[in-house]
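User: Can you fold this complex?
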Amino acid sequence: MKKIILVADDSPSIRKFVSFALKLKGYEIISASDGMEALEKLPNAKINLVITDLNMPNLDGFELIKAIRNNVELKEIPIIILSSLSGSEEIKKGMEFGANSYLAKPFDPQRIAYEVSKYLN
Amino acid sequence: MKQISNMSDLFNRLNDLKFAFKYGQELIPMIQSIIDFVKETVPLLEDINSSIADSTNKIPRVRDQINNISDSTELATTEILDIVDSISNDISNVEEKIKASKESESERQKHWNEIKEILNKSGHTQLIDSYESSDQNSILSSEILNTLGGIKQKVYNITLSLQVQDITSQQLASVNHLIEAVRAKLSSLILLLDDKEISNVESANSEVCESTTFDPNASYSKSPERQELVDDLVKNNLDKTSQEEIDKLFS
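Assistant: Here's the predicted assembly.
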């Protein structure tokens, strides 16, 4: 069975980039345009991993991570942050909130595939 | 005696009045030049005011145009990505077919070896040489697979380069944010200068796209240094967290 990855990013092109990079590796991709949409989709699909941006409308990436980690059923899902914010404060906050990996934009498709495989293979 | 004192007061006052008139006469040209200056300045101030109002009214249009540019590049990028995706799928399909053909090739090679043995026994060595020199399938398949591997890598590189669109749209959103700040400042300036103009300006204030989020420092770089720096920070953070956990255990 294909592993399912939820990609939360307000940029349609980034959602497509990630989808492009991971589809080739055999993963199924579900997209969300913000944290709120991601939270709505998470319980309904059996998501194996979340890739999230930090700057998003309605509910940002930090809040999304917090919500996932505070949910008993979702808290074990690995989370990868994919953001153009790469200052030490954001990284520290992201990791403290419970992210497993942090990737900077623009990202290397092979690197993201590698990070995903660390948690799903 | 009192009458004399009153008269002296009166003369003093008249003297004061005379001086006042004298200074007044000297001041009149100066006051006139101030009035002339103000008269000349008023149209200029009105011009400045209307220019500010005009510029302020144009700002929402500039902002909309920037948003349009961002939307168009987003659309174009998505279209390019769809094409790239399709190319990538085609490459994968061709690769699969060549690999399958290579597998059947080894089967064919087995048969050929048997035929070759028969031909050798019957002395048809020339026929064998001629067939083997014309059979380039195996070499060609490997070369095609190598070429396809190279194309696949280039397709990957295209996706990496196309991410410039995301960074550019964040930079444009940041510029829009600055433009909006300037518009707000100009609007308040107009409010100070002329109450009437503000209604026009406010009505021209199209809604700011609050759903747009951006990183004002977003920059495009293909150099791996940025990710290496992030990796270092993540590692340091994880090390620190582990240390904190150890400290907690022993405290």
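Chain A touches chain B at residues 10-14, 16-17, 20-21, 23-24, 55-58, 60, 83-86, 88, 91-92, 95-96, 101-111 (CB under 8 Å). Strands of chain A lie at 4-8, 28-32, 49-52, 79-83, 101-104.
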